[in-house]
């Protein structure tokens, strides 16, 4: 291939290199330069053009990409039509990537003109997902290079389809095991399986004893389960522990215990007849990727998982941490400055148009001042107030109170901006924050303290929410381990989806009454609260007199 600047009169039949736009001419990169194009270039006064001219034997970029892609595509992989020197390969079925790493490396070393990029080995894919791409770097590949590639080619990229579709899940229980944890585990497991086209066909809860587990495993096998997953009430500590003992008591064997992947270290792999059995590590209760996924996917694809396979997972086995557990051997930082309170007071209050609701008074006290006084009455410090709309009014309403103000100029962009501003204003070593809303006048210091005290990083409790009759309310306490995720929020949403994403790390704090749910949005709600409080006060004030009257009657 000849590459360079050609006089326009000599460029016919070459390939344009750089996109060119002139009046009446739009010549794209890679476009062939034909006679009508030359006439337009001459008319526009163009004297020369950068182009590439193929020589005898050269294979054009699209044809070369298509040939290579077809040669390296294996089972359950299809090839898209080549364009601009690129041919994409796609999964023909949902499954796991199987890559011949040595062959891919060898192909990429033949010549810099031809490249092949793939997804990682054992990466799960959906049908239709792009799994690899062949890209030709120049506009053509010499015949000799294509011949060397042909000789080195063969199936290098294939998909192993998911094959197992019927799973049994067994949860062992100890005194104190909660239904909520089991329910969350089943939801997470069902979602994992669904992604691979599988489902739970049998679910059972048994005592955390090998004598109870073994019959459950036999029942799973009898019901046609193709794989069994056991979640222990207590983590597996040894090959002689309850779960491995239960597998062996059911007539099975233990293939491997432990893996060099974190999270996921305490995984156990066994088998009863043809049915694989997984003793799940605790991290498998979380939807976050962990070592359990690596083994589960291979088994669902019908692939063997040997001890050698598991022992070879160490490189790349330090996965992104799930926040509900500290980094390996990591402890909470020394010098923690405790848990703060963030009061969100930046909203516009559009449902109360005749007045700004946060500075509207309830029995003579601004709504925002009441919320901040409750925060100051708690044991948590500092108290950060985030202002936005009518910031000066809010500051005046809080005059004399020992708070730290932070202004959010982006308050109109949504609640998340105020939340991020408040978290950022806490001391660098703050261990957490209770986030409360300035329009919730019934929240008191006791509730704030109870939420803060429920956080426990070492136990993996990173979120605390008030709950009444199964309903979750506000405020919400957050461990500092989740501050980076709070800082990544955007738009007019709070952090509720983070609570769902970290369900295993949530503590529910029981509350009575409506303090965790009562917010003020309208003038009618404000007046109703004022009347209710006046009535309560009158009842309290009248109490001694009523008691005296009852005593006289007696």
TrEMBL record:
GO terms for molecular function: nucleotidyltransferase activity. Residues 341-504 form the MobA-like NTP transferase domain. InterPro entries: Bifunc_Mopterin-bd, MoaB/Mog-like_dom_sf, MobA-like_NTP_Trfase, Nucleotide-diphossugar_trans. It comes from the Bacteria. Keywords: Magnesium. The keyword Flavoprotein does not apply. This is Molybdopterin-binding/glycosyltransferase family 2 protein. It comes from Ancylobacter mangrovi.
